[in-house]
């Protein structure tokens, strides 16, 4: 059967299950006096496979209680979308501000959720004091080490993992010429991992990037670097594949093979920032295709033992970063702007169930 038709059938089945579970419709075996049982959440279903199911979130959204209700019960891993980035945590040199990150860690704790912390070293969203002057290599090394170790120490014991270095490579697999690379050379990555490990030996340490879902020049660069770092006993635990996909560019068919080759190096992998955008308006067909992609990604992760979990880059179209960055595109997430589950939500359930 064509996979889009399969999606429609499965959605109908899943919807019936939801209605029965919610007590809105009677299932075939329902008896008078039966009490509706609680529908297992995405996190419950993922947990049965030893995986987590996470969502990013951001501080301004936390006043929306309808939003935080779903965030608090459907997921078991939370990533702060902005609150732990350098501009937020060290707005002036040596002056640290944990307000935004702490708020999200506290919220996650109150819902018994873990935290994928994001991110220590990135070329974007850096504070002005860091980007508005030049640094010698010695100066920048000291600044970088202090930033990493102060932040990692602050969150020691409260976060599951860190995206230590984010987006270090170009599409062709060459190093991205960031402030850190041009001043310190490629060794800044191993240094950052070692410094983070010193500050919290229990946190899982990741390199994280987009467009590395398929086997290709950029994921090959990560594979080569990861192999080299493992051989040098640099504390690297995992590779994060962001998975910001777009219907118009095709599905990364080699995702599962790609996850598997990193596993064979002894590394964890995770899908860390999943969304599947489309050119608007969203049609039934596009939403069905999107649902297939979410199902396929979930199945790929479940098929590879060391793919430890999936995080969507916020769960609802209401708070997606896409429309602001890609005008005319959106509808990328499994819940719509009214917080209603879309076909993609049922497809993830279906893959996990
Ligand atoms: O904080 C200011 C606020 O003061 C101002 O009023 C407002 C007006 O536009 O902007 C606010 O800053 C925004 C910031 O998010 C915090 O909300 C920036 O404009 C906006 O560009 C920024 O976008 C973030 C983006 O990273 C920056 O590149 C997104 O929220 C965040 O979801 C996104 O996340 C990245 C990951 O970290 C790495 N991978 C890609 C992913 C998507 O870009």
Automatic annotation (TrEMBL):
GO biological process, alphabetically ordered: xylan catabolic process
TM segment ranges: none
InterPro entries hit by this protein: GH (IPR017853), GH10 (IPR044846), GH10_dom (IPR001000), TAT_signal (IPR006311)
A Pfam cross-reference name: Glyco_hydro_10
SUPFAM superfamilies in alphabetical order: (Trans)glycosidases
Keyword terms of this UniProt record: Carbohydrate metabolism, Glycosidase, Hydrolase, Polysaccharide degradation, Signal, Xylan degradation
Every GH10 domain range: 39-351
Catalytic activity: Endohydrolysis of (1->4)-beta-D-xylosidic linkages in xylans
GO MF entries: endo-1,4-beta-xylanase activity
Taxonomic superkingdom: Bacteria
Enzyme Commission (EC) number: 3.2.1.8
Keyword Protein biosynthesis assigned: no
Keyword Signal (UniProt): yes
Gene3D superfamilies xrefs: Glycosidases
SMART domains: Glyco_10
Signal peptide segment: 1-32
Family, as annotated: Belongs to the glycosyl hydrolase 10 (cellulase F) family.
Name of this chain's protein: Beta-xylanase
Native organism taxonomy: Bacteria, Bacillati, Actinomycetota, Actinomycetes, Kitasatosporales
């Amino acid at each position: 059967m064509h996979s889009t038709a399969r999606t429609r059938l499965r959605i109908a089945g899943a919807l019936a299950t939801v209605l029965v579970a919610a007590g809105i419709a009677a299932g075939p075996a329902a008896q008078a006096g039966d009490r509706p049982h609680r529908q297992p959440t995405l996190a419950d279903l993922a947990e049965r496979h030893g995986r987590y199911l996470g969502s990013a979130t951001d501080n301004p959204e936390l006043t929306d209680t309808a939003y935080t209700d779903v965030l608090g019960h459907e997921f078991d891993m939370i990533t702060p979308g902005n609150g732990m980035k350098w501009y937020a945590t060290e707005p002036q040199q040596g002056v640290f501000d944990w307000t935004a990150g702490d708020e999200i860690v506290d919220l996650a704790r109150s819902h018994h959720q873990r935290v994928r912390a994001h991110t220590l070293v990135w070329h974007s969203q850096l504070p002005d004091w860091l980007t508005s002057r030049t640094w010698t290599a010695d100066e920048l090394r000291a600044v970088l080490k202090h930033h990493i170790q102060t932040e990692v120490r602050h969150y020691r014991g409260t976060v599951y993992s860190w995206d230590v270095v984010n987006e270090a490579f170009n599409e062709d697999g060459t190093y991205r010429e960031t402030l850190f690379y041009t001043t310190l050379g490629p060794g800044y990555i191993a240094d950052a991992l070692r410094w983070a490990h010193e500050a919290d030996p229990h946190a899982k340490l990741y390199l994280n990037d987009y467009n590395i879902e398929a086997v290709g020049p950029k994921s090959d660069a990560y594979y080569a670097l990861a192999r080299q770092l493992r051989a040098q006993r640099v504390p690297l635990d995992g590779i994060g594949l962001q998975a910001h996909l777009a219907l118009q560019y095709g599905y990364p068919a080699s995702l599962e093979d790609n996850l598997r080759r990193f596993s064979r190096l002894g590394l964890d992998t995770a899908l860390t920032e999943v969304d599947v955008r489309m050119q608007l308006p969203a049609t039934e067909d596009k939403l069905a295709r999107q649902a297939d992609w979410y199902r396929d990604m979930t199945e790929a992760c479940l098929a590879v033992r060391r793919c430890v979990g999936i995080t969507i880059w916020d769960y609802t179209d209401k708070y997606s970063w896409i429309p602001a960055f890609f005008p005319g595109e959106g509808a990328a997430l499994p819940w719509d702007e009214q917080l209603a589950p879309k076909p993609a939500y049922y497809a993830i359930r279906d893959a996990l169930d």
